[in-house]
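Q: Protein A?
A:
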Amino acid sequence: RYFFTYLLPHSAPLTLRPFLSNILNATGDLRYGINETLKAFEEVLHLYKSGLYLQERPLLLKDYVSLKGFRVVEGEDYKCWPSYSHLGCLLSVHSAEEAAAICNSQSQCQSFIVTEQRTWTGRPLALFQSSLTDLIPDANAVVYIKRSASSGERL
């Protein structure tokens, strides 16, 4: 009950919450049995893994400078919920474009990197940072820096 009521709907992307609420209500009202609940969750998981849940919105990645061949040093930074790290803001994303939208929605965020780490669904984790310091060489990485942040700092 706790999983259905509190954890699942509140840590899901906004556009998936109505689907999860429907599953919650249908299961609670006994309209869904085990098989219907499983099928509904599989449909939500498909939307989540494929990125089909993402709403049409303006492309935000153009507002970022990409710095190839570098990554940020992972350390303590601002925290967000539901982060995969207790040291900072590490979130699951579908793409760099979704990461840019998340970074834009957080006032502290100045840069992000889409890491090589994956969730159990295969989605990459993005690390969001409030500062542009401590960049280290990494041939396989790309740091995305807000244009407004990069104009005031030396790269």
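Q: Protein B?
A:
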Amino acid sequence: FRYYFPCQRWLAVEEDDGQIARELVPVDEAFVKKDSENEGQSPATLGLEQKAKSTTYTVKVKTGDKKNAGTDANVFIILYGSKDDTGIVSLKASKINKNKFERGKVDEFTVESVDIGDLKKIKIGHDNKGNSTGWFLEWVEIDAPSLGQCLKFPCGRWLDRSEDDGAVERIIFPAELQTVEYTPFVPYEITVYTSDIFGAGTDADVFIVLYGSDGGCTQQKSLCLNKREQRMYFERNSVNQFIVEV
């Protein structure tokens, strides 16, 4: 057998979702072959195929509001499911704060993985490197839109060689009473055509809401991940494609 693992994504802290390691899923040969029969396969169509085989998790991490609670160390997380685990994922680029893991702050990260089943527990820790390494972790919240589930992992302990029990990594289980179930999200391929008239392009934060025949609608979803993408896309006379989970 021959397997194809396309990526077409950045591995950079300042690009895309900020991850510097990616777990790739195999796709059908037709999505990568460059011949006359397959000219219609767009990058977005390929992205939709990959998204259907993977799960995107939004990971929120709350640093406690205590003296010296923040850390400069490199923080990692492992998600354990009923089928598999994600392996070590570095939490490099917070989507909310430039300076991550500061006292009293909540940081948000994106983690992508193949199907690991129902989320059972997590391991979170740091490498104890840097000027200020000790960290007081309040809680971790993990939201999986494609599964329709949001779980809270309370901690309330130090990850510090000189505090508590001296451990710098901890295994945490979800609080069942704080688990939220909702309608699972579905990935859509969105193609946007910007007109070819003077001033047609925009650098604004373009969003989309989808309405169904029964009157229900999705949440508002931004098409760009960051301000850099806002400057890149929606230029005059351009066609942009996005994979959006709503």
